[in-house]
Structures are given as structure tokens and as C-alpha cells.
Amino acid sequence: MQDRDVIVVGAGFAGMYMLHTLRRLGLATTVIERGSGVGGTWYWNRYPGARCDVESMSYSYSFSEELQQEWVWPHRYATQPEILSYANHVADRFDLRRDIVFDTAVTAAEYDDSEKRWTISTGTGQAFRARYLVMATGCLSVPKVPDLPGLANFNGRVLHTADWPREGYDFTDQTVGLIGTGSSGIQSIPLIARQAKHLTVFQRTANYSIPAWNGPIPEKRESEIKSNYRALRQKSRASYAGDYADEYYVSILELSSEERTEQFEKRWQEGGFNYQYAFADAMVSEQANELAAEFVRNKIRAIVKDPQAAEILCPKDHPFGAKRLCVDTQYYETYNRDNVSLVDIKADPIIEITEGGLRTGQANYHFGVLVLATGFDAMTGALTKIDIRGRHGVLLRERWRDGPRAYLGVAVTEFPNMFVITGPGSPSVLANMILACEQHVEWIAQLIEHAEENALTEVEADREAQEQWARQVTESASKTLYVKANSWYLGANVPGKARVFMPYVDGFQVYSRTCDAIAKNGYPGFHLR
Ligand code: N01
């Protein structure tokens, strides 16, 4: 049994920075990582076309001025290999690997009330004890394999986008069936279509997607950002989404019809998430949202030549942005190819997977490779998968049966000295994730430092503060259109999962100000013993 001050679970962007920060406090820290390398979600999600939907120069660490000045991002939106190579660079640059145990999955963590220590067990049999436990397990790290009847009978290869073979996969001359049209499906479909003999896409819910207009970052733009990086990062920290793009400065309903079309077109031509974040009323007014949605539908109708396919691709059953917006490269154009077909499985649901394909109520489809782009058990899956036992042996997954509860999305009553990075109840997936990780890491480190300086042995969230926080998160979300879709934000994609809106919707800037005030005022809402 190895004794450490802190055990961090996960060596993605949150875990790496947590290690770096805790080392600076002089705390003996070990990171335990399931994969063979750093990078977290970017280590596993290697499907063709995987890339970030936040601009690279924003989706990157800001804690080191030298790092952000020296690193060169080749594209506006970085590809998965580029992000993974950045993660590896960071691990080497800050000499992180010597404190990371790879190829080791944490299976259980148990708090010993009398010793005030966590015992951490792993799949390899190695065990650790630590005073603090930091869960940096990610929001989108547990792939969701749907319960499709007959899946085990399929004779061909089954691939999940979030658990892609490290050696890649060659679709040349293959017939492919793909289920799922969220971000992973929308990014991979154009590339698979280019290689495969035939691709059949099975769509249950049409999604809204905005073009990325990806390309190399012009040198002038790069130097503008780099010469102004500090100010831009401050702007990101003071923003709703943790990004430095201008946001929320236009209200759709205040514009004339011509101005509105001009604004929508401008955002469409700029590409990416700002099509949503530019508009102050897009996620609160159904009327405004519908106008933004219809503009996207008309773009789809203009791009896709087959009017029937275009209508199937037009989302009509949920507000624009209520499921996470997708950012694509040639997604809708792909349906103009002769080797691509689209099946509406909402109208004609899948009955079963067969040996050579799948069967819906009305037809049989044949293919040799099945790609599941079916998403994740988001935000809580990686935490509830581990047997985390707090005070008196209580299980986290039992405590969260009716929905996750965490004060500030960081700390859980009955689980002292455990912190969750970008946990449910924090802005997390609604913000730029790397900035959200940095903010949490810095805040948690400050709290641990406070505990060390004051010889505290236990830090625990107060039950009433936690309940009040959970109520606030739910109430804020209920005032928006985010709750009007069956999204993974709500856990709706996992059968049996409690339907609770998990991210904090009031904005990254409001959230981080709240966290700062709590630290400044001596941590109200925490029991410091
Ligand atoms: O997963 P999803 P994802 N039968 O849950 C369908 C991030 N991400 O991996 O909507 C048929 O969004 C499901 O249909 P429906 C990003 O935050 C980021 O694509 O439930 N279909 C849906 O179409 C993103 O939002 C990037 O009706 C089934 C799809 O599978 C998040 O990860 C890239 C089904 C799942 O979509 C998740 O994205 C990739 C079934 N039984 C991912 N089960 C970046 O660019 C599921 N589906 C940073």
C-alpha cells in the first residue's frame, strides 16, 4: 500500500494540471490513469474526424505564459491527434509522467472515518492511501453502448467512436452502418463516407450542426492572439462560456427581419458555437430560438439535394441548442454522395441487429461494419462506475440514485476530502472545458492549501448547502430551453438514469465569482474540521 497526500484519478487535462499544481504546494501526489497515455477523452476518442469544437487557441491551458506562447496550433479547430500531441508535450514539459501510474483503472475508493484517509483500490491489485482524493475522471469518458437486441449476433466488426482502436480502422471497400448523429457521428460520417464502399446512417434524432469552416490559423491571427493572450484569457474567464469570442450581445427578437437574417448569416459564415452564444435570447425565448432554428433548417434544405433526406435531417422535435450543438465539416453535403443513405429510425425503428446488418419494422439493411456513435454516460458515469464509499460506507452511486448532488459541483456531503473536477452542478460541459478544469484545479488546490495551513483533517460539504445548490442549479436550468430536449445533459440517453439537468447554466463567470467569494469568506457551506 502506497501512502500519498493526494490521489488524483485520471490523467486528462484536469488531472495533469491538478498534479502540476499540487506539486507546487509540496504535496506528494500520484495520478492513476486507466489508459496507457495522458489526454483523457482525447486519448480514447480516435474516430476519423474527431476534433474539438472550441477553437484551439482558446481550448488550451492558460496557466503557463511560456507554454501558450510557444505552442503552435496548426488549425482553427484542433484534430484529436493534435490535441493528444499537445497533452503529451505538456506531460513532458512539466515532467508529469513520473507521478502517473498508467494502465491502471481505479475500481474502488473508501473513506476511513477514524484515520481520515482514503483507500484506493485498482484493477491491477495496486492499492494507495491518501488524505485527499481528487476525481478528474471527465464528463464524457464512459462510452454508452445501446441495448440493441441481437447486437451480440452481429458477424462483422463493431466500433464505438469513444473507444476507437488505437491503430485506426480502414473502411476502404467496406459497407458500413452507423448509428448516432450527435457530435461524434456528425464528425465521423463525412470521413467514413469518403473511404467506405457504402455508408448507411441510422438517425433517430436530427441534430443542429453549424459549419466549422476549419482551416489553418493565419499567422496574423495567431500573432494577434499571442500578443494579447493574457487579456483574452481574462476575457474568457469573465464570459459565459469560458471563451474569448464576443457573446450575448444581440437579442434575436429585438432585430428587424432583415437584421436577423443578416446576423444569422454572419454567425453561420463565422461558424462554430457563436451561432448560439452570440444571441442573448436564443436559449430563453422559444420564439427567438425557433427563428434561429428555422434559419439552420433552411441551410440544410439548401445544401441537401434530396428534399426527402433534407426534411429527415431538419431537427423539429427540440429547440436549437437544447442538445449540444454540433460543429461540422461537410456533414450535410455528405448526404449528396451516391454511396451514402439515410434511414429515419424514428419513423421506422430498429427491431434488431442481425448477423449481417439490422432490421427495422419495414426493411433489412446489410453491412459488414457497425459504428456506434452513441455517446456517453455523461457527467456521472465515470464516478458511479467506481465503488466510492464515503463516511459509514455509504456508496456514491446510491446517494446519487435520484440525481447527482454536489456542492458547487465540487464536493459531496458524506464524502470528506474528496473533490470532483467539473462535477455535476458546475458549468463544465457548457463552458470551455480546459478553462473549467483550470478554474476547478486552482480552487481545489487553494482549499487544500487552506486545510494544510490550518491543520484541518477534514473538509466536507454541508448537507443543506449542497441541497440548496442542487435546487438552484435545477431552478436556473428550468428557466431555459435546455431542459426541453432528451439530452445527455439531463441523463436522458441512459435508460433508468434520473432525469436531472446536470450542468450549471448561469454562466462560467457567475460560477467562478461565486467560488471565489466562498473561498474569500472562509468557505461557508463547508465543514472544516
Ligand atoms: O453522443 P450524443 P456523441 N438507437 O449522445 C443516438 C462531446 N463531443 O458522442 O438523440 C438509436 O450526443 C442518439 O440518438 P438520440 C460533445 O459534448 C465533442 O455524439 O438519443 N440511436 C444520438 O444521435 C457531445 O455532445 C466533440 O435520439 C441511438 C447519438 O446516438 C458529446 O461529446 C466530439 C441509440 C448519440 O449522440 C456526446 O457526443 C464528439 C439507440 N439505441 C463528442 N442510442 C467535440 O467536437 C443513442 N443513439 C469536442
UniProtKB/TrEMBL annotation:
Keywords: FAD, Flavoprotein, Monooxygenase, NADP, Oxidoreductase. It comes from the Bacteria. Its cofactor is FAD. It comes from Mesorhizobium qingshengii. Belongs to the FAD-binding monooxygenase family. This is Cyclohexanone monooxygenase. One of its GO terms (molecular function) is monooxygenase activity.
